[in-house]
């Protein structure tokens, strides 16, 4: 075997070993995330060079240990030389492996949830419209690859974005600018999109849309901790994230994962909001805590993030979203609860 062929075979072994190492907080391995720039064996030393990552020290240490244990014991490996650089501010906007601010956009607020169906898109849309009601210039980017629902909630399902110079012109609905990943693809294809394609789409939607000027861009993320989340964290500095949960224990476990994910990429978390938390009976006007209550606040304390309040379970919330006029636009107790969330976020911006 020639030296070149040998090196190639070793690289393949390294790649399959590193494919087993997941980035802490994410359901993705280092190879799929394209974080490994170089993997070579030089005189018994495994030389691994990574792309810059914005990770706090405990995450770096965890990664170092996991890479070391994945490579130890491989044929010919006696020691490890690991290069894990810190990101430097990017200068070229076409080359942003490190987070680059969006031109003319002051703040970026992702809305995330560990699990699907907790009302994350509902919170994202009502938060964006609530912030606009409070006088801010707002954009809402729907990155929910597996079920883009923002166009329906804003009543612009059939609108098509046009181009504006070399950028995409967002659609304007209820006074906010919006673009959905759904406009770039049809729903069936979403499920076969893989890492690099998703990264490209996320980059385009953040940096090649005519967002400016905006005070805040709200992002509706897919549930969980996958490709879209890591792409977002690599592409844009996050001002503060909002994690949505419902009060059930199963959802809370996932909320912790959501918060951990942002911490793993050094992003600030504004706090956790509790959706579908209580129900006001039409007949007796009493507040019913259907799923139990009181578990989210202590969880926030434990995680060191703010409790952003609770939102009612109310049929009008769903009906109005389906009609394209989210509840916050009106003047009802449920609308007021979402507006109160917007006030809290505005105060943090
Ligand atoms: N507070 C609420 N009261 C009543 N219905 C709600 C409330 N919040 C959300 N819903 C409804 O619950 C369903 C799920 O909400 P939504 O699509 O916002 O969840 P999600 O977490 O974004 O889900 P996914 O991203 O998995 O599709 C929708 O039909 C929505 O209208």
TrEMBL record:
<dbReference type="GO" id="GO:0140663">
    <property type="term" value="F:ATP-dependent FeS chaperone activity"/>
</dbReference>
<dbReference type="GO" id="GO:0046872">
    <property type="term" value="F:metal ion binding"/>
</dbReference>
<dbReference type="Pfam" id="PF10609">
    <property type="entry name" value="ParA"/>
</dbReference>
<dbReference type="InterPro" id="IPR034904">
    <property type="entry name" value="FSCA_dom_sf"/>
</dbReference>
<keyword id="KW-0411">Iron-sulfur</keyword>
<dbReference type="InterPro" id="IPR000808">
    <property type="entry name" value="Mrp-like_CS"/>
</dbReference>
<dbReference type="GO" id="GO:0051539">
    <property type="term" value="F:4 iron, 4 sulfur cluster binding"/>
</dbReference>
<dbReference type="GO" id="GO:0016226">
    <property type="term" value="P:iron-sulfur cluster assembly"/>
</dbReference>
<keyword id="KW-0378">Hydrolase</keyword>
<keyword id="KW-0547">Nucleotide-binding</keyword>
<protein>
    <recommendedName>
        <fullName>Iron-sulfur cluster carrier protein</fullName>
    </recommendedName>
</protein>
<dbReference type="InterPro" id="IPR027417">
    <property type="entry name" value="P-loop_NTPase"/>
</dbReference>
<keyword id="KW-0479">Metal-binding</keyword>
<comment type="function">
    <text>Binds and transfers iron-sulfur (Fe-S) clusters to target apoproteins. Can hydrolyze ATP.</text>
</comment>
<keyword id="KW-0408">Iron</keyword>
<comment type="similarity">
    <text>Belongs to the Mrp/NBP35 ATP-binding proteins family.</text>
</comment>
<feature type="binding site">
    <location>
        <begin position="114"/>
        <end position="121"/>
    </location>
    <ligand>
        <name>ATP</name>
    </ligand>
</feature>
<comment type="subunit">
    <text>Homodimer.</text>
</comment>
<keyword id="KW-0067">ATP-binding</keyword>
<dbReference type="InterPro" id="IPR019591">
    <property type="entry name" value="Mrp/NBP35_ATP-bd"/>
</dbReference>
<dbReference type="GO" id="GO:0016887">
    <property type="term" value="F:ATP hydrolysis activity"/>
</dbReference>
<dbReference type="GO" id="GO:0005524">
    <property type="term" value="F:ATP binding"/>
</dbReference>
<dbReference type="InterPro" id="IPR033756">
    <property type="entry name" value="YlxH/NBP35"/>
</dbReference>
<dbReference type="InterPro" id="IPR044304">
    <property type="entry name" value="NUBPL-like"/>
</dbReference>
């Amino acid at each position: 075997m020639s030296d070149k062929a040998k090196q190639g075979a070793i690289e393949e072994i390294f790649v399959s070993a590193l494919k087993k190492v997941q980035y802490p907080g994410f359901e993705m391995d280092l190879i799929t995330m394209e974080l490994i720039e170089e993997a070579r064996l030089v005189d018994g030393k495994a030389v691994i060079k990574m792309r810059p990552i914005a990770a706090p020290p405990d995450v770096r240490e965890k990664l170092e240990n996991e890479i070391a244990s994945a490579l130890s014991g491989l044929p010919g490996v006696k020691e490890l030389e690991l290069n894990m650089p810190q990101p430097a501010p990017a200068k070229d906007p076409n080359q942003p492996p490190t987070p680059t601010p969006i031109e003319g956009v002051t703040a970026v607020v992702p809305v995330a949830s560990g699990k699907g169906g907790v009302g994350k898109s509902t919170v994202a849309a009502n938060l964006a419209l609530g912030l606009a009601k409070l006088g801010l210039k707002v954009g809402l980017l729907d990155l929910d690859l597996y079920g883009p629902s923002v166009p329906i909630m804003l009543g612009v399902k059939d609108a098509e974005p046009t181009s504006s110079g070399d950028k995409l012109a967002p659609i304007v609905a209820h006074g906010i600018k919006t673009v959905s990943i759904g406009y770039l693809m049809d729903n069936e294809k979403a499920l076969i999109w893989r890492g690099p394609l998703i990264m490209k789409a996320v980059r385009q939607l953040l940096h090649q849309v005519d967002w400016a000027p905006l005070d805040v861009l709200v992002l509706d993320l897919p549930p969980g901790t996958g490709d879209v989340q890591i792409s977002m964290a690599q592409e844009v500095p996050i001002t503060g994230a909002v994690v949505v949960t419902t009060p059930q224990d199963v959802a809370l476990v996932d909320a912790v994962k959501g918060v951990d994910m942002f911490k793993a990429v050094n992003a600030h978390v504004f706090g956790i909001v509790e959706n579908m938390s209580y129900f006001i009976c039409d007949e007796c006007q009493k507040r019913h805590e259907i799923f139990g209550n009181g578990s989210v606040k202590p969880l926030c304390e434990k995680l060191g993030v703010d409790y952003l309040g609770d939102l009612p379970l109310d049929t009008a919330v769903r009906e109005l979203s389906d009609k394209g006029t989210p509840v916050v636009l009106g003047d009802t107790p449920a609308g007021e609860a979402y507006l109160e969330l917007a006030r809290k976020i505005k105060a943090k911006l």
